[in-house]
Amino acid sequence: MSSQKAPVIVVGSGLAGLTATYKLLQSKTPVILLEKLDKFGGNSIKASSGINGVLTSSQLAQSIPDTPELFLNDTIKSGKGLGDLVLQQRLVDDSQRAITWLQEEIKCPLNVVNRLGGHSERRTHRSDGIPPGFEIISKLQKAIMALNETNGGGLEVKFDSKLISIDKSSEGKIIGLNYLNMKDNTETYLQTSNLIIATGGFGFSKQLLQKYNPDLVSMPTTNGAQTLGEGQELIESIGGKLINMDQVQVHPTGFIKQDDPENNWKFLAAESLRGIGGILLNEKFERFVNEVGTRDFVSGEVMKQKGKKAYLVLNQDMYGELGFQIEFYMKMNLIKKTTIGEMFGDSKEEVKKLLVEYSSGQADQFGRAHKQHIFKQVADDTVIYVGEITPVVHFTMGGVKINEHGQVYNLEDKIIDGLYAIGEVSGGVHGANRLGGNSLLECVVFGSRAAESVLQGKL
């Protein structure tokens, strides 16, 4: 084990926290991992579309003409220029390394490459037949446990453990923290000179939404109940700087569960469903938007529709590509299998005409040119898959101000020695709107960078 005085403490076991943990253990540095829930994964385990990367082996194998410049420009454009260009450049530059690490060390094939909204090329990676968040978290967890066994220990995991305070020295350096055991309600103090915060966003916190973006308080969310912004608040309490906290992403497609339509929590209808060719129809069964526009734009257009909702429509070819996800959605009563005639009744002729126009192979009146699958057969008995959707609070772009190594800035824009913030707890990477597929990438890139920064300081 390393000769450092105290273990590195990582708070949060989503992809960012687990990435940092793996990299530290790989260098035989002891880690204490605190997790508020009773299992690994956080919100990362629910990610359903994939992880972005450019010039990857999967892209090259499929002759996808993507470039770092295109990826960076898409990220900047999506963020409306509000993002930190240094962080965005790092995100893009490290993306190939991130995908390669997941493929070669963590054993995630990531061989399917799709195109999501706001992207100019296909660059969102997933493996065939399994949700990307679940696969990556599951395999990374196994890799961490195997690495820990090989090293003869070094990892201590504390579930049901909530960070409640961070301790600094008089010189402003991190020296420890207090956490609460949520099972027996006892508090414990731990010493450390390196603290990595990966506690996620605040999309479930009505209190913080009211404070920073009150227009969204009444909107449903896809976030887990643990996503309360405690990391941001605790870092702010010791002088850390928060930025862009009013920038909250509304995702256009949260499923309305037919047997529980008023539930504030919604299953996310993965953006990949639209990326592979799915369309949105309003209550008049009319298209009204380019379904693969940026998330903020599509959300705005859905909000203009009656009831602030729409129908997501897919066909058998799309099912052939994402059947494992669609089957899950059907099991959860979020999507139903039907036919054009059954679904649209007296409006079926107008809908069939609409589907033929959409499938013409040309950019349509809404500017959609990318159509991975089209509606090749349009008849009364043509099988379709339909779900009802509404916009949902999904991701908080704002958070703790960091540099490209995940180190935290104070109010004077100086580094707080020994403190890191990675993943959704941080701000600056996404600006005013996040590209789909960039959240998992952010976790790997800055989780890796934070671990490497700690190690460089300890070697």
UniProtKB/TrEMBL annotation:
Gene3D superfamilies to which the protein is assigned, alphabetical: FAD/NAD(P)-binding domain, Succinate dehydrogenase/fumarate reductase flavoprotein, catalytic domain
Free-text remark on how the cofactor is bound: Binds 1 FAD per monomer.
Cofactor(s), by name: FAD
Enzyme class: oxidoreductase
EC code(s) of this entry: 1.3.1.6
Catalytic activity: succinate + NAD(+) = fumarate + NADH + H(+)
InterPro entries recorded: FAD-dep_OxRdtase_2_FAD-bd (IPR003953), FAD-oxidoreductase_2 (IPR050315), FAD/NAD-bd_sf (IPR036188), Flavocytochrome_c (IPR010960), Succ_DH/fumarate_Rdtase_cat_sf (IPR027477)
Alphabetic keyword roster: FAD, Flavoprotein, Oxidoreductase
Domain FAD-dependent oxidoreductase 2 FAD-binding, first and last residues per copy: 8-440
Molecular function terms, GO-annotated: FMN binding; fumarate reductase (NADH) activity
Keyword Phosphoprotein applies: no
Family as reported in the entry's similarity comment: Belongs to the FAD-dependent oxidoreductase 2 family. FRD/SDH subfamily.
NCBIfam families: flavo_cyto_c
Known role: Irreversibly catalyzes the reduction of fumarate to succinate.
Protein name as catalogued: Fumarate reductase
Species for this entry: Wickerhamomyces pijperi
